[in-house]
Amino acid sequence: MIKIMKYNAAERDAILNRNLPTDDVSAVVAEIIDNVRRNKDAALFAYCREFDYADLTDLEVSAEEIDAAYASVDTEFINIMRDAAKNIEKFHQQQVRQGFYIREQNALVVGQVLNPIENVGLYVPGGTAAYPSTVLMNCIPAKLAGCPNIVMVTPANGGKIAPAILAAAKIAGVDRIFKVGGAQAIAALAYGTESIPRVDKIVGPGNAYVAEAKRQVFGKVAIDMIAGPSEILVVANDTCNPRHIAADLLSQAEHDAQASAVLVTDSAAFAEKVAAEIESQLPELPRADIARASIAQNGKIIVVDSLDVAVDLINQIAPEHVEICLDNPLSYITSIKNAGSIFLGKNCPEAVGDYFAGPNHTLPTGGSARFSSALSVDDFTKKTQYVFYPEIALEAAGPKIIRFAEEEGLSAHARSVALRLGEGRNGNIFK
After folding, report:
1. Residue 361 in contact with residue 341, Cβ under 8 Å?
2. Is the pTM of the predicted complex or chain greater than 0.90?
């Protein structure tokens, strides 16, 4: 049964506490990474036999396998994925930025160029469920950024990848796909093997082992974020349908036993109705055991005196998903500072964003929305800045630069400017 608690400011920290996983898998992951780094494909084949029950002779998915998988997915779902891809592309197209330059007095120029990250690795989970939506959400922004080499890794249970995942990869434009998952896949992307090319950045969610592997290889490669268990916070009052709100909470609970589902409401009677609806709907779910464990461990309904408190709770918790199931949802937008993605109104469940609306569903979890953002085109670009100072500009600024360098005790810095001021130099490449 989900916990119902009355909000008390004095006990706020206890009420808002997340029961995040505490199992330390770092040693196991470090061993896997070291094995893959040293033994490359041989280690990957062994892990595929151990974890995926797949005795593979080739890690890469062939073009024939991709085409066969695409053909096996029913046309209706192919068209739905194509429609979703169009929405995702349309949304993320607005994030594409160009470089810039600023020409100042004395003909000096400062600027910035944007370049795509050349080699990107997409991790797509494939354990207890298949996620073609994750393929679309991770690949499409990378394609819009202009990344030329996009490789995907995903577990192949029994040697097979779910056809919908391969079909989504074909739709999104993934360049190469490999049948490997878990921490070993992250290690392969970070260090490269005989089959899998080393990448510059790894994106995509995964289980605790995948998250820890991304943490450990960070620095060798870039990563998007450390994704934890999924979470949702719903704000609702007694004008809402309790059946709908219960369904929304369960939509996150079914992800993972560690997932978090929270309702904030100003009605104790409504809280009881939602709790009863959760119990009624749980047995109907194919993933009922997972959802029940999540609700028992991390589910809660927080009853507040006024929904004015809700924004403060959201900003304190900084949840992955927020639903504002009220009649005036737009009035909350500017006040919510810490959230991965916000779903507005009574007819906008989080599933709308997970699959179809267009905004990205790879979101910060575990409170990291305080300092982190949804996956975007920016995650697949890097910025290089440049400076051009002609002689006249250096003459004007040089004494100040020299003084700054001397103040920091870096005399060679100061000398590099002083020599030029003494010798003089002509030419302007920006004529």
Report:
1. yes
2. yes
